[in-house]
Amino acid sequence: MSDSRFFSIDRPIAFESADSDTALAFRHYDKDREVAGRRMEDHLRFSACYWHSFTWPGGDPFGGETFLRPWMHGDDAMAMARSKADVAFEMFRLLDVPFFTFHDADVAPEGASLAEFNDNLKAITDLFAQKMETARVELLWGTANLFSHRRYMAGAATNPDPDVFAYAVGQVKAALDATHRLGGANYVCWGGREGYETLLNTDMKRELDQLGRFFTMLVDYKHKIGFEGPILIEPKPREPTKHQYDFDAAAVHAFLQKYDLLGEVRVNLEQNHAILAGHSFEHEIRYAFANDLFGSLDVNRGDDLLGWDTDQFAMDVGELKLVFHELLKHGGFTTGGLNFDAKIRRQSIDPDDLLHAHIASMDACAQGLLGAARMLEEGALEGPLAKRYAGWDTAEAQATLAGERTFEEIAERARTLDPQPVSGLQEYLEGILNRY
In this structure, which of 56, 179, 385, 391 has its CB flanked by the most CB atoms within 10 Å? Predict the structure, then answer.
């Protein structure tokens, strides 16, 4: 490998076959293969994230940097940011992903003031725009980091200090402007520290009202500048705060209802966040579709033996089958996609480990998609589900749901009924899932 090249290859990774022995090749992800009426690439809409791939140094609570990335060390912060962008766009090209995502602080140095940060972000946005003129990659979404700096230790929009609220507004305005300039399909807000550590020093109603005002202003500004994509909230129950206000999709739903934001704001869901909230990934996805909240997905996973957010690459084909079963059943993505909000392990110190991780997860997603498409085509799960609820499709049951029967009328009819329990067939259905 030459001194000027970060990765060991310079040709984009290609699809070969399931039995290929080429290390850097796709075995299942064939982007042009038609699945359920669409190209595989158009179903999956893969996106590589900037932060874990190029900003995380490989540290953990018990040890520091392991990756030793060349753009993380130097005196000229903007020069390092440009160098990082060069490598990022090289990875996007090699993986041939159609999208990428970023936080403002991932791509531009914060500097000594908000004005300097905004200027730095604008300069990097100009650089991205220049690179995107010749690159195949587009922007799935942008966002602002409102949780790492010490000013946000008590939250951003929910902070007890209105000056911190104002600073957050200034930071998000610049990040949304950058996202709009780059043609982003969505804009994401992750709550970060929008929550509390103890109720002893927290006025919950005041903080939620502040958060509602923040999102109302953000939606108004989005329309003012003509940004057409949805605003997305990424639910998470804890980490870094003990309790976060965007605990899960249902909590976000209630928040949006209260502050009249339904239809304007949707959810960006993540597997490990769902697990931390006591749900499965497919539960959160189904809830979002059932309540017209679905926006996009972060496709990563946690570790079943650990109780925190480990951000590992998604490799569980069985789980991914259920994810794509939900997606295909509801028509798939519109503006959203599958964002690899995932980081390689701190011992994976070779640059090519970034490529191996993405390849393996993209292949796992492709396998999940293919299995889900077959299940839907053959009615493997939908058939038994429809049969289980068939009674509600009768004229009498539909009249009940339509409000055409009174409580007393239903009670009178029940006097002649003798309903008998019917098996839920759980193990049978689990067996069906394994066949695919």
Answer: 179
C-alpha 46/C-alpha 100 separation (Å) is 8
Tens digits of per-residue pLDDT, 99-111? 999 999 999 999 9
Any known ligand binding at 30?
no
- Residues that are catalytic: 103, 106
The secondary structure element, H or E, covering residue 297 is strand 294-298
Q: What is the pTM of this model?
A: 0.96
Rounded to whole angstroms, the Cα distance separating 297 from 243 reads 22
User: Which tokens sit at 120?
Assistant: 């730095």
Beta-carbon contacts of 291 under 8 Å, excluding residues fewer than 6 positions away, are 249, 253
292 assigned binding-site residue: no
**Rounded to whole angstroms, how far apart are CA atoms 26 and 17?**
7
Query: Which tens digits make up the pLDDT trace of 377-395?
Result: 999 999 999 999 999 999 9
Q: Can you list the domains of the chain with their CATH numbers? A: 34-378 (3.20.20.150), 391-435 (no CATH)
CA distance 268 to 255: 15
Residues 6+ apart with CB under 8 A from 270: 234, 236, 297, 298, 300, 341
CA 9 to chain CA centroid, Å, is 29
Q: Is 161 annotated as a binding residue?
A: no
Which pLDDT value is given to residue 2?
Answer: 40
- 299-328 core/surface letters (b: 16 or more CB in 10 A; e: else): bbbbeeeeeebebbbbbbbebbbbbbbbbb
**Alpha carbon distance 312, 117 (integer Å):** 30
pLDDT in tens, 155-179: 999 999 999 999 999 999 999 999 9
- Calpha distance 390→346 (Å, rounded): 51
The helix-helix angle for 249-258 and 204-225 (nearest 10°) equals 80
